[in-house]
Amino acid sequence: MKFTKMHGLGNDYIYVSCFEQKVRNPAKLAPVISDRHFGIGGDGLILIAPAKRADVKMRIFNADGSEAEMCGNGIRCVAKYAYEHKLAKAGPPFEVPGQKPCPASLKIETGKGILPVGLALNKEDRVAKVTVNMGEPVLETKKIPVNLPVQHVIDQPMQFQSRAFTMTCVSMGNPHAVFFRKEIANLELDRIGPVIENHGVFPNRINVHFVRIDSPGEFTVRTWERGSGLTLACGTGACACCVAAAITNRAARTCTAHLPGGDLELIWAEADNCVYMTGPAVEVFEGTWLTK
Questions:
Q1: Set 71, 102, 242, 255: catalytic member
Q2: Known catalytic residue: 234?
């Protein structure tokens, strides 16, 4: 099986084009191929396949084999791969509120629906950055989902491992719990992260983010990702943090997210209520997985 290793800010996945080959059991393959000692190594497996209503379709399988609805860093890499490997022809310019339009666009089918993306191209006609219209955030408790008797989970007092936290929850097609703190560097995220992810209040588990506000236009994030654990970046999570910071009056609707793997530029546009995410996508190497 041919594969390509790609990453968005260090959030790395193994990408397989299903235009010419089949992956019969991706949920079983993902934990094996993602293993960083006995496999290729990555945060999961992403399949790129033909789509009827979009340019390409993506499916995301976490390192534990569970299928995710959406991956913000992953969709940028899918867009780069589809364009540079000529799986799809670029569409018209992509409008970004308050910014210059991207010269080319694609439509990618995800578990969240069809999302439009804009491509910033360099002189060699390679994709330098990708902007994704991540859609409207979901704040209704039942739709995230979170099993709490409130309409919205905003600065909600919670306890995990007998420790007090204040939590805001947002769905960007997948569920996120955001916790604002003055200090996040010394937080034992590898211990508290899985406890929160698998807590009974989250029927579909949850992505966990601890956020430090650095200024009205920037914040720093550490992430425990559902099904993958500690990751260097989470695109949907950064978008959720942007929304959570804005609705709690901690930061502006246009901001920069500082992640361990690098930065993302975020706009929660008032015109259409959609979140726009801009960041890089990098192709690292290609190879062949010797399946048994």
A1: 71
A2: yes
Do β-strands 262-268 and 163-171 pair in parallel, antiparallel, or remain unpaired? unpaired
What tokens does 239 get?
């978008």
Domain residue limits at 30:
2-131+280-288
* Beta strand segments in the chain, E: 2-8, 11-17, 44-49, 56-62, 67-68, 104-110, 113-121, 127-133, 156-160, 163-171, 175-180, 207-215, 218-225, 229-231, 254-259, 262-268, 275-279, 282-288
User: Could you tell me if 122 and 13 lie in one domain?
Assistant: yes
Instruction: Compute the distance between CA of residue 141 and CA of residue 150 in angstroms, rounded to an integer.
Output: 7
Domain count, the chain: 2
Q: In DSSP terms, which residues pair with 288 in a beta bridge?
A: 2
Q: Is residue 205 part of a domain?
A: yes
Q: What are 148-194's pLDDT values in tens digits?
A: 999 999 999 999 988 999 999 999 999 999 999 999 999 999 999 99
User: Which member of 102, 234, 241, 242 is catalytic?
Assistant: 234
> Residue 136: inside a domain, yes or no?
no
CATH of the domain at 266: 3.10.310.10
CA distance 254 to 252: 5
- This prediction has a pTM of 0.93
- Do 120 and 8 lie in one domain? The reply is yes
